[in-house]
TrEMBL record, chains A, B:
Key words of the record: Oxidoreductase
GO MF term list: 2-alkenal reductase [NAD(P)H] activity
SMART domains with a match to the protein in the record: PKS_ER
Organism this protein belongs to: Quercus rubra (Northern red oak)
Enoyl reductase (ER) domain span: 35-346
Keyword Magnesium: no
Short name of one Pfam family: ADH_N_2
Claim: Oxidoreductase is one of the keywords in the record: yes
CDD domains: double_bond_reductase_like
Protein name listed in UniProt: Enoyl reductase (ER) domain-containing protein
Origin: domain of life: Eukaryota
Length: 351, 351
């Protein structure tokens, strides 16, 4: 459906995943809908220094369910009811009002869940320079989850060779990378996940030393004592709640906890209590929450490390690709019931 | 009651506070008893490199109630049933088997709750060089609580001028010092305590900007929002539980929590749940538990800072002195019901 004036004024159809209204508890597919009636001009408005991009790959990430809730304060973000949801994605520049980008550039950063987006906040948009890897990797291993894993493990955890590392939600986009970084450094690495298939992946594909299915462990404390009889030096926290409580009983002196996420808590009406914080004192535990966006300055150093490892097959990476924007809501919601195996991506369009 | 052979073999009466048996929940006075039948030779045994000391001041500290519980693992300490309890104290060397100390030296460090102690582990015993202050100060402002406040505030919290600082159990030995350090640095300082008398002290004697009685605040979150409308940069955590939960809702981005103690949790049969840890992620909060003994290397630097401030009256310090070893059990147990005002010390003997 093209209409309008000259070439530059081309207006095309623009399918969008629209957010219906604030959610409490678990998000459902029906909290979003596909709008097929929208159109967009493939041109940056006069005077704007933004970009008009064609979205190629969209990323499904756990933090996104927090954006479905009513903002808890003026400093937190939420999706806007009636507007497309947004997240990280890989896109191609169709028109640029910004001297840093030109038509044809590939970028990754925050974009909308729609075929085309007008991006006005280009500050944290990164140009993709290395294209000898699948472009979808920039939603994962080379994008936000990659930089999250890198900065969380190397900066927050201050890891040393030989240390004992535990990762929860370990088969997710971030966890699988943290585990591989830790193995490359010479750590002992155990991961937890929520299915036999994921546990097999951790052991066989990602080469963790051990992995277990937390759903089959009635006593998480006992499970951790089995895998870490001498205790845990580093816990990479993705789930929170009961797992954190069990971990706190098993930390070694001067242990470090990098708090990356607490997916078990995001969809609860009432947050679970963590009872064993007092054990932080007995073991002088250091617990730090972080987000990758405080670490953009490390991105070039991160690429220098990870690109050769990918090329040499020393780091493997698994994606779960849902095809078509219309499959997006189901893919996103599936994250919270653990349906995806590997990094969940939505393929909107081939380049 | 002196008996025995020559002068060096002098045996004297040695009253002791004996630990009866492991406690669960709140310790009571009756969990200890005074043994008045003991004797001790005022001489270090042949071949020992320990010290025989006369105890002058003994320190009552919150962590001691943890020593009354059954050890939770092989790496935790407990008092030994049937033996004297122990803690920090100021003592005078009566006989020395160690070249680093001589008879007449004043020391502070770990000693027994008794009139005389044989100290075999002298590694963390410090010689008192500055005696132009009350010797009891070495159980508090110049001892373990002082170094705790100093290392916790300056090292763990990385404070900056103008930051917003909240201290719980603020009238205690550590809290009153942290608040004064923070004021000296130019921070805005609010403290919580459990009585009107303590709140008045915080405001009038220790010059906190504000203070409140947590027992009179049905909604701690609302109280903190009143005192910190823009949020908290630094929380010096002494209590845990509900207070921590309320604080987590009010931290600023990149806020820091120094976990010094969680006195509200020490005597509970079942630990309270902390529900708002997920807010650490939203604000990238850094929470670190620490103990002063990791910071002995900072002790000289700490003295350089604090001694002139004491001399000039820029730091004030309040003690609550119980006279006589026999008053020790009541003084110690009183800590946990908040009876003491200022640092609780037991005076065993004048120098």
């Amino acid at each position: 459906m093209a209409s309008g004036g000259g070439d530059n004024e081309l207006e095309v159809s623009n399918k969008q995943v629209i957010f219906k209204n604030y959610v409490s508890g678990f998000p459902k597919e029906s909290d979003m809908y596909l709008n097929t009636n929208g159109t967009i001009k493939l041109k940056v408005p006069e005077g704007s220094n933004g970009l008009l991009v064609k979205n190629l790959h969209l990323s499904c990430d756990p933090y996104m369910c927090n954006l479905m809730k009513k903002p808890i304060s003026s400093t937190t973000n939420s999706f806007e009811p009636g507007s497309p949801i947004f997240g990280f994605g890989v896109a191609k520049v169709v028109d640029s009002g910004n001297p840093k980008f030109k038509k044809g550039d590939l970028v990754w950063g925050k974009s909308g869940w729609e075929e085309y987006s007008l991006i006005t906040d280009v500050q944290n948009l990164l140009k993709i320079e290395h294209t000898d890897v699948p472009l979808s990797y920039y939603t994962g291993i080379l994008g936000m989850p990659g930089l999250t894993a890198y900065s969380g493990f190397y900066d927050v955890c201050s890891p040393k060779k030989g240390e004992y590392v535990f990762i929860s939600a370990a088969s997710g986009a971030v966890g699988q990378l943290v585990g591989q970084f830790a193995k490359l450094l010479g750590c002992y690495v155990v991961g937890s996940a929520g299915s036999k298939e994921k546990v097999d992946l951790l052991k066989n594909k990602f080469k963790f030393d051990e992995a277990f299915n937390y759903k089959e462990e009635p006593d998480l404390d006992a499970a951790l004592k089995r895998y870490f009889p001498e205790g845990i030096d580093i816990y990479f926290e993705n789930v929170g709640g009961k797992m954190l409580d069990a971990v706190l009983l098993n930390m070694k002196t001067h242990g470090r906890i990098a708090v990356c996420g607490m997916i078990s808590q995001y969809n609860l009406e009432k947050l679970e209590g963590v009872h064993n914080l007092v054990h932080m004192i007995y073991k002088r535990v250091h617990m730090k929450a972080f987000v990758f966006s405080d670490y953009y300055h490390l991105y070039p150093k991160f690429l220098d490390l990870v690109l050769p490892h990918i090329a040499e097959g020393k780091i493997v990476y698994l994606e779960d690709i849902a095809e078509g924007l219309e499959s997006g809501p189901a893919a996103l919601v599936g994250l919270f019931s653990g349906l995806n195996v590997g990094k969940q991506v939505v393929l909107v369009a081939q380049e």
